[in-house]
Amino acid sequence: MARRRQIYEGKAKILFEGPEPGTIVQYFKDDATAFNAQKKGTITGKGVLNNRISEYLMTRLGEIGIPTHFIRRLNMREQLVREVEIIPLEIVVRNVAAGSLATRLGIPEGTRLPRSIIEYYYKNDALQNPMVSEEHITAFGWAATHDLDDMVQLTLRVNDFLTGLLLGVGITLVDFKLEFGRLYDNEEMRIVVADEISPDNCRLWDSKTGEKMDKDRFRRDLGKVEEGYQEVARRLGILPEAGVRDLKGPEMVQ
């Protein structure tokens, strides 16, 4: 196994130095966390499935002209991405009331919202990723107004596309989280979709039964967590050919 320098380890992924300048290798773990890491566990095969699902969705977004950091999948658990400067924001789109929105506003879970709602959260685990406003974002310099405008426009396009794509396979896109990065190419800078798009950061319900097929199965101790992720991959036609099996990660050097 190739030895690579580890750059960062998060809750769900490890980042390694890429084979070429300006690239990074994302390794998807089976580790699962919820409630700002207060709950921890393992979902067997999650990394393999998230790698495939994110590859598929990022590729489809690229086909309709939405810029992403994704380059290609390397193996069952790794993908090659462009190195970007991550903007410290999470952009959350809500189409149906669920999770914290339902709790905060007392809206019954499953209520279709009058229109898609966008919320901003400051990426800071120590502060439990607090919700922030556009005023906070621009005042503290996390993103300029025009950058935020670009992120919102891209987010709405992603939402429209994924809503239709998933509905076509019987899945309701309840809500999801996007992260963005600044990609520098010589003197040019552009905003691109980064991180991942998977059942880890999307709420995905069966369109007919309302059955959850995402990390809420882990959060709420609903059982059959692995089966939920597998069902999403199956409906998208991308369940790994050899089935879900564990693979050792690359050896790390400091």
Structure description:
- Residues 244-254 have low confidence and may be disordered.
- This protein folds into two domains: 3-83 and 224-253, 2-Layer Sandwich (Phosphorylase Kinase, domain 1), CATH 3.30.200; 85-206, D-amino Acid Aminotransferase, Chain A, domain 1, CATH 3.30.470.
- Strand 2 and strand 3 form a beta hairpin.
- It has helices at residues 46-63, 99-105, 134-139, 145-167, 216-219, 225-236, and strands at 3-9, 13-17, 23-28, 31-34, 39-42, 70-73, 78-82, 85-86, 89-96, 112-122, 131-132, 171-185, 188-194, 202-206, 251-253.
- Helix 1 packs parallel to helix 6 (225-236).
- Helix content is 28%, strand content 35%.
- It has six helices and 15 strands.
- The strands form three sheets. Strands 8, 9, 10, 11, 12, 13 and 14 form a seven-stranded antiparallel β-sheet that branches. A six-stranded mixed β-sheet has the order 6-7-3-2-1-15. The protein has a two-stranded antiparallel sheet with strand order 4-5.
- With 254 residues, the chain is of the alpha+beta class.
- The chain is globular.
- The longest helix is centred in the middle third of the chain and has 23 residues, at 145-167.
